[in-house]
Amino acid sequence: xxxxxxxxxxxxxxxxxxxxxxxxxxxxxxxxxxxxxxxxxxxxxxxxxxxxxxxxxxxxxxxxxxxxxxxxxxxxxxxxxxxxxxxxxxxxxxxxxxxxxxxxxxxxxxxxxxxxxxxxxxxxxxxxxxxxxxxxxxxxxxxxxxxxxxxxxxxxxxxxxxxxxxxxxxxxxxxxxxxxxxxxxxxxxxxxxxxxxxxxxxxxxxxxxxxxxxxxxxxxxxxxxxxxxxxxxxxxxxxxxxxxxxxxxxxxxxxxxxxxxxxxxxxxxxxxxxxxxxxxxxxxxxxxxxxxxxxxxxxxxxxxxxxxxxxxxxxxxxxxxxxxx
Amino acid sequence: xxxxxxxxxxxxxxxxxxxxxxxxxxxxxxxxxxxxxxxxxxxxxxxxxxxxxxxxxxxxxxxxxxxxxxxxxxxxxxxxxxxxxxxxxxxxxxxxxxxxxxxxxxxxxxxxxxxxxxxxxxxxxxxxxxxxxxxxxxxxxxxxxxxxxxxxxxxxxxxxxxxxxxxxxxxxxxxxxxxxxxxxxxxxxxxxxxxxxxxxxxxxxxxxxxxxxxxxxxxxxxxxxxxxxxxxxxxxxxxxxxxxxxxxxxxxxxxxxxxxxxxxxxxxxxxxxxxxxxxxxxxxxxxxxxxxxxxxxxx
Lengths: 325, 299
Known about the structure:
The structure holds 2 protein chains of 2 kinds.
Chain A: H1 2-5, H2 7-19, H3 22-65, E1 68-70, E2 77-79, H4 83-88, H5 92-123, H6 130-142, H7 145-155, H8 162-169, H9 181-209, H10 213-221, H11 226-254, H12 258-263, H13 279-289, H14 293-324
Antiparallel strand pairs in A: 1-2
Helix pairs in contact in A: 5-9, 5-11, 5-13, 6-9, 7-9, 9-11, 11-14, 13-14
Chain B: H1 2-15, H2 17-24, H3 32-56, H4 76-85, H5 91-122, H6 128-138, H7 147-157, H8 164-167, H9 174-187, H10 190-198, H11 203-214, H12 216-232, H13 235-240, H14 248-258, H15 263-283, H16 285-298
Helix pairs in contact in B: 3-15, 4-15, 5-9, 5-12, 5-14, 6-9, 9-12, 10-11, 12-16, 14-15
């Protein structure tokens, strides 16, 4: 790189010094000052243009629509104030979706992050074939969510699924993965965990590798066991990373959509009694299936609020936990 | 933490050099339990993909076989051609559409993200920090917040069901800008830019012939991540596109809806839509994983 560029300045500088006439230099200087002033904004402008049109405007427009009764098919469009929100607070289907989403979020996220910590801790040792393990753990993230959800749905099939067959071998009766509310949550959580555990493990591994090795050596000399080292060194040092992954999982978990939709054979009603309909599915359903766009917009804002509340909650809980230790 | 450990360690180094070596020998050694944990994790990570391939390469009679088959068969070609013949799925069209959408989004994301990343990392301008904060803040906004108005906007522009509708909103992401900013900061020395500046290069010229070449490795990682994410996108295409003009993920959904008893057919579809990406990932895995892990530490 430096070979390409370094020689040029000297050559050019010499030329500019000898040949450029004063007025020319003035124009150039002004141009270059303009360049330095304006170019940064030009360089970042594509981001802001795209964000303004497809990010910020829709966000505000969602707010506006949530205050209206809006149907696209009939063309109905009238201002109703907060009616969508007051209806939402009495809507049993909405609460069902909230409970489902939170339930799946908890049973997906907690084991996921614990397993990721375990895997990362194992990967942090001196290993044979560490690349193989890393690549293997990341493969789920690369496969399409739709494809995975289809495959898992078959694995969880009540009559012909591999998982019930395996459970049968150890004497467990077939589980109704789809129709039972609790088990459908478990099945969907397994899909989510399958996808994200390895990714989180690598994030934790990266953070673990940046912890100074001296700390462990000192602890080992003082006679601390590995388990103790993990609790007193690794975990506290990872706290910022754990907060980060927990918040990312919260944002993803509260928007859960693809897995349950494919588990429902491509529909958004979340099973025969809505036993695994998530908030995102409910929003999609109200807007695109029931042509109730205003109400759907109100649901969208509730998702956003929930994400903010739970991210803050996460942040506080994990910080408190670390502080107590 | 370091403050407490520091003096201790210094003492240990000076006084007990010998016993230290003995005690520390095993400190980073992997135990059998470590390997067992990792191997179980590996098997669980890979098995569903492997199972997908087994089913995709066999006939439908295997469904419910006891014990289930654990090796691939020889009927992949047949199953795949059935997938392309399945009319409801528009599978070939879905593949082509996905390739177009993912490539367009990838090219523009890399270009715009390196541009903005360069500006945020190396140029001085008023309001830089506040602007960078807004970039980071946009990463927190869920896509779903926007899909209802986005859908209506596409109606105004006459783009409903057209590929623009799934390309234009994703031309650049806050994530891309932030990632490229982090890399530029570390990969492009200030002197290099100063030198080009003295040389009389305009800012755009510096971007094009100094910064962009230096960012090539990181830009490659961003490109691969963006391509994979766009390829796998589901919710917004489901709202914006029609079954007749789908992305490949929508084709799979159609296939799954129409042939949900015919697993070998559906799995052949998911295999075709998944395996090429997996191969690309394995080839570039070192760079991608390095990129993800480096990004994690800095974030």
